[in-house]
Amino acid sequence: MRNKTLFLAITIFPGSLLWGQTYITNVTVLDVEKQHLIPAQTVVITGNRITNIGASKKLKPTEGATIIEGKGKFLLPGLVDAHVHFFQSGGLYTRPDGIDLRKYVPYDTEIEWVHNNMEDFLRRYLASGITTVFDVGSTLRFLRQRDTFQNKVYSPAVYMTGPLITTWEPSVFKNLENDEPFFEAKTPEEARQLVQKQLPFKPDFIKIWYIAAIGNNLEATARKYLPVVQATIDEAHKNNLKVAVHATERITAQLAVESGCDYLVHFIDYEIVTDEFLQLLRRKHIVLCPTLIVSEGYIKTFAQNLSFSSSELLKSNPVPLGSLYDLKHLPDTNLVKKYKLMGEREQLPGKKTDSIKMVNLKKMVEAGITIASGTDAGNIGTQHATSYMKELKVMQESGMNNWQIVQASTINGAKALGKEQQFGSITTGKRADMILLNANPLDNLDNLEKLDLVINKGHVIKPDTLIKETALTLVQRQMNALNARNLNAFMEPYADDVELYTFPNKQIAKGKIEMSKMYASLFEKMPNLHCQIINRIVQGNIIIDNERITGLGDKPLESTGIFYIEEKKIRKVYFIQ
Ligand SMILES: [Zn+2]
User: Fold this and answer.
1) What is d(CA 156, CA 134) in angstroms, rounded to the nearest whole number?
2) How far is the CA of 282 from the centre of ligand 1 (A)?
3) Partners of 535 in the β-ladder
4) Which strands form 242-246's sheet, in the order they lie side by side?
5) Cα of 376 to ligand 1 centre, how many Å?
6) Which domains does the chain have, with CATH numbers?
7) Parallel, antiparallel, or unpaired for β 205-209 and 242-246?
8) Which of 247, 431, 520, 572 has the fewest Cβ atoms surrounding its Cβ within 10 A?
């Protein structure tokens, strides 16, 4: 009998016996469902679950437990980015259907790069406090790769669809086999087969790309494709899979919702939504992810009018971010000019779609529609992980308050996939995915970046230990900051006792302060300063960049920089001119 009791105890609470417990004490917990703060709480983690919550006065740590003092700090559920794409890097070459630059970077090269960097992106998400991401449109190969991260401590939980089932497929993506992000369905039968085709790869849900704005008559096209949409939804639901739909017009959104879809992954930006439409969303318990910033990413890139915050320059993967500046020097000037004009046209003040988006979001929030935060990261100009704060800021500009935004970024994300029993709030029994902040995010949304600890799958992690810094990331980062003319971000990768020389041994600056003064005046005097890498050699802790610099004088300057990296900082630079 005694043995049986012990056996039961082990099966119910394996963590407490095998891994020990963690107590976060005296902390203020954010109850994201009821939107209120609960001070002086103790939260108990056993294994990968939250196993108890109570007043710190009463709930005392057991002997041998790990204790995290939470006094003065704020505990939230881990954040959810409810709309990302790992098949896209956020860089310039990632959507050849948007801008075709395959003559400079073949699409195959881009595909390999995103696969090789999925781990890096996951680490950056977690370092930003994002413990769950939804990839709403992926490839069969990425579904396989998703499985390899399932138990990794550094990885957020990844929920992923297979390729987007679409009524129209851009030709550049055709015949890519397991790397194809779109599956085109012409008939309802084909749509069912394409859901079936994904099943062996175990998608977490199904995504439809409902594109109707091709011909002149939007509504007629939308209705023509409706049977394909209905068949996809029906086949997915038969297999217990929820369905997310890309529908950016009121009519496609309405038809998708009426057909029983679960999650709308974009906004309606062509018309102000009616009360009738809002009632439909509410009646059908639709979750909507507005993705407010993604179009701006394209526009600013094309118009060559990029603006990244220091935090984006420092924390993004620097390779795709850096590529966004390439339009300034690509040889096909006609193409570049055409896109620049297009971007500039979209940037004219008072552009209609922007204000429609804002008004619609406010109307939806007031009507009680469940809004989930998501960035559409991976698209040109929208960086993985670091675009999240940008998205939240625009939600705020639309009139959502901080509580509503925190809710949209946690529990509402979970609701989009019907996973609210598993994560999204600090509740006994849920996954121990939480963030501990040094300041209250309800006072100021920026405090979401004041991360003390990330708790992922029950593991307690210092966020700054997550990202793997290399010689390449340091050198690329300072170059990006130079092109952005952001002095703080530019100086960050340099050591305090950095030394600059003209080759071989003439010292031109010593120490960060002197160097910083030198570049401050350069940035000020040369507003068009732009640096392009012609050739780069990476050898251990040395990087040799052959650069072409424009904006310094009449003619471009060719220069070679030899960067020595020591203890994860740039310690010496030699310039050959
Ligand atoms: Zn998307």
Assistant:
1) 10
2) 23
3) 546
4) 182-184, 164-166, 205-209, 242-246, 263-264, 287-288, 370-371
5) 5
6) 471-576 (3.10.450.50)
7) parallel
8) 520
- pLDDT at position 346 is 87
The whole-angstrom separation of Cα 488 and Cα 472 is 19
- Judge whether 134 and 374 are in contact, CB under 8 Å: yes
* Whether residue 504 has a cis bond before it, omega within 30° of 0: yes
Q: Which two tokens stand for residue 4?
A: 């049986």
Six token digits for residue 497 = 């006792």
Summary mean pLDDT of the chain: 94
Going from the Cα of 468 to the center of ligand 1, the distance in angstroms, rounded, reads: 27
What's the confidence (pLDDT) of residue 4?
A: 41
Contacts of 531 (CB under 8 A, 6+ apart): 479, 482, 483, 547, 548, 549
- Looking at residue 135, what is its pLDDT? 98
Query: Strands, DSSP E only, in 438-541?
Result: 451-456, 459-461, 494-502, 506-510, 530-539
**Residue 214: helix, strand or coil by DSSP?**
coil
**CA–centroid distance, residue 517 to ligand 1 (Å):** 42
Q: Cα(259)–Cα(286) distance, rounded to whole angstroms?
A: 12
Distance (Å) from CA 137 to ligand 1 centroid: 7
Q: Residue 51 contacts by C-beta under 8 Å, 6 or more apart in sequence?
A: 13, 15, 16, 21, 44, 45, 428, 429
Question: Are the C-beta atoms of 89 and 420 separated by less than 8 Å?
Answer: no
Neighbours of 15 (CB within 10 A): 18
For 534-568, the pLDDT digits (tens) are: 999 999 999 999 999 999 888 999 999 999 999 99
Burial class (CB in 10 A: 0-12, 13-18, 19+), 372: buried
CB atoms near residue 333 (< 10 Å): 10
Q: What angle do CA 234, 174, 196 make, to 5 degrees?
A: 25
Q: For residue 379, give the DSSP letter.
A: B
Residues whose Cβ atom is located within 5 A of ion ligand 1 = 376
Taking the whole predicted model, whether its pTM rises above 0.85 is answered as yes
DSSP one-letter string for 467-484: S---HHHHHHHHHHHHHH
CA distance 282 to 428: 28
Nearest by Cα to 380 from 448, 296, 446: 296
Q: 181 alpha carbon to ligand 1 midpoint, in Å?
A: 11
Nearest-Å Rg of the Cα atoms of the chain is: 25
Q: Residue 350 — φ and ψ, nearest 5°?
A: 75, 25
Neighbouring CB atoms inside 10 A of 345's CB total 12
Paired with 545 in beta bridges are 536, 561
Q: Can you tell me the distance from the alpha carbon of 184 to that of 49, in angstroms, rounded to the nearest whole number?
A: 41
Within 25-166, residue ranges assigned H as helices are 107-116, 118-127, 140-148
Q: Which residues neighbour 5 within 8 Å (Cβ) at sequence distance 6 or greater?
A: none
Of 125, 126, 164, the closest CA to residue 143 belongs to 164
